[in-house]
Structures are given as C-alpha cells and as structure tokens.
Design goal:
Elements: H1 19-45, H2 52-55, H3 67-77, E1 80-86, E2 96-102, E3 117-120, H4 125-132, E4 135-141, H5 147-150, E5 162-171, H6 177-189, H7 193-198, E6 205-217, E7 224-226, H8 228-233
Antiparallel strand pairs: 1-2, 1-4, 3-6, 4-5, 5-6, 6-7
Length: about 260
C-alpha cells in the first residue's frame, strides 16, 4: 500500500493570503464607510438651512403655513377623491352621498394645472345626482399614499393635511382643447379609463370641477380658506429654500360659531 506524502507547515512559515480577495474586502469596507458618512452628513444637514440642497430629491409636502401651495400639492398628487353629492335616490333624497372618483389634474409626471378632471357615467349614482344638482364637494388627504401612516401620524390628526374643495361639475365638449388635455391626463394616470370610454352602453363623459371654495386643514387651529386666485397662482413644484413643518404658529379659535344641524 502506498502512503501519500504529507507536508507540514513550520511554525515560522507565514500564511499565504489571496491578494485579490484581500483587495475586494478592503474596497467593500471603504464603500460602506463612505455610504455611512454620507448618510450621517445628510441627517445633519436636514436639521439646518442646507436642507434645500437635497429637497428636490424627495417628494415632501410644503410647509403647513403655505395653504394655497398645500392645496395645489394635494390636488396634483391625488389620483382619486371622495366626492360628495346630494342624493336623488327616493329613499334618501337630499341626503349627502359620497363616492370614490378617479381624477387627474395633469398627465403623470407633467406640471400641475390645478384643475381636476374626471369621467362620469349616468349608470352611476354620482352622475345622476349631479345631473339634477351639479354642486359637489371633494375631500382628499395626504394619507392617500400612506404618507401620514408611514410617518406615525393618524389620518384624522390635523397634521395629516386634508383639503375640502366645493364647486360645480362642468361637462366638457369633446371637440375642445380642454377636453383633449383632460382626457390625456386621465388616460395617463388611469389607463383603465380607455376601456370605460370604449365599452358600449356606458357613455362616459369628461367633467371638470369649477371651484367655489377651498378649505385646507394641515395643522392645529382649524381650517384655512384659500381663494381660487391664490390657489391657481400657487406653484407646488417650486421648493422653498427651507421647510420646517415643526415650526409653531399662532393657533386661532377652532370655531367662531356653532350651527345646529339636528333640524330636519
């Protein structure tokens, strides 16, 4: 039987290390160190006036003191709203009724227009209600994409911004430039809308919201009312040099008067 030869390393002999592997380990350590340092710097800058350097990289809401801009921001961000109308159903005629309606104020990725466009069909009770009385109110919240929930803010808290916009539904004629703009915006954000239009018997038509009043609740102290002129003039895409949503502001009385709504 042949016994295989065995070589033994002497105590004085150095351990041979693969230099290629060693270089990769060192490079990995350096990359991790650079990333950790960068995150630390970003965290420090975000507490001071240098936050504007990084602000454009994040989809942050405007300051709670910029009410018109907050309203425009939420409208541009929203792709659906809760829409309230006055019911025409016999059993609850005149009662408030609410529905979820898909909306768009521009094509996805395009600049905000501030005007909400939406499709309706007479097969749905919202269109039936609005055909009798075209007054409506929509409500939308910053938590529609779970922004508040992800940041530990309950959706009912005033610091989870919401807006209530009241106005009238206006049907758009299909041969106008505005119809083309609104339908393009809807198709961009809601591809399923093309199927709605093409489905026989549904007869969807395009509407826009003609705004009468805008109420913004984005902090403690009650709602603030924004004029249509200020709303349309606000630019939600323009970032402020420094945003501090924790800044205190004077809290006004929540309600000036009390209205009795118990009467039939």
């Amino acid at each position: 039987m042949t016994v295989p030869a065995v070589s033994y390393k002497k105590f004085s002999e150095p351990t041979v290390v693969n230099t290629g592997t060693k270089r990769w380990v060192i490079l990995y350590i350096l990359i991790v160190a650079v990333l950790l340092s960068s995150l630390a710097c970003l965290n420090n800058f975000s507490r001071g006036s240098l936050v504007e350097i990084f602000e454009d990289n994040f989809d942050n809401p405007p300051s709670h003191t910029e009410y018109a801009k907050m309203a425009r921001y939420l409208v541009h961000k929203a792709e659906w709203v809760s829409m309230g109308s006055l019911s025409t159903v016999a059993a609850i005629k005149g009662f408030p009724m609410v529905n979820i309606i898909s909306v768009a104020d521009s094509a996805r990725g395009e600049k905000s227009s501030g005007v909400l466009y939406f499709f309706l069909t007479m097969l749905d009770y919202t269109a039936q209600d609005l055909s009798k009385d075209n007054r409506l109110t929509i409500m939308l919240t910053l938590d529609q994409d779970l922004y508040c929930s992800k940041n530990g803010i309950d959706p009912m808290e005033p610091t989870c911004a919401r807006i209530m916009i009241s106005g009238k539904a206006v049907k758009l004629e299909s041969d106008t430039d505005e119809y083309k703009f609104g339908s393009t915006a809807m198709f961009s954000r809601h591809p399923a809308a093309k199927k709605w239009i093409d489905t026989d018997g549904h007869n969807f038509f395009l509407c826009k919201l003609d705004i009468t009043q805008i109420a913004v609740l984005d902090f403690y102290g009650g709602p603030h009312y924004v004029t249509v002129e200020d709303y349309m003039a606000a630019d939600p895409d323009k970032k402020a040099s420094f945003v501090n949503n924790n800044a205190e502001r004077k809290i006004s009385p929540r309600f000036a008067t009390t209205t009795d709504i118990s009467a039939p």
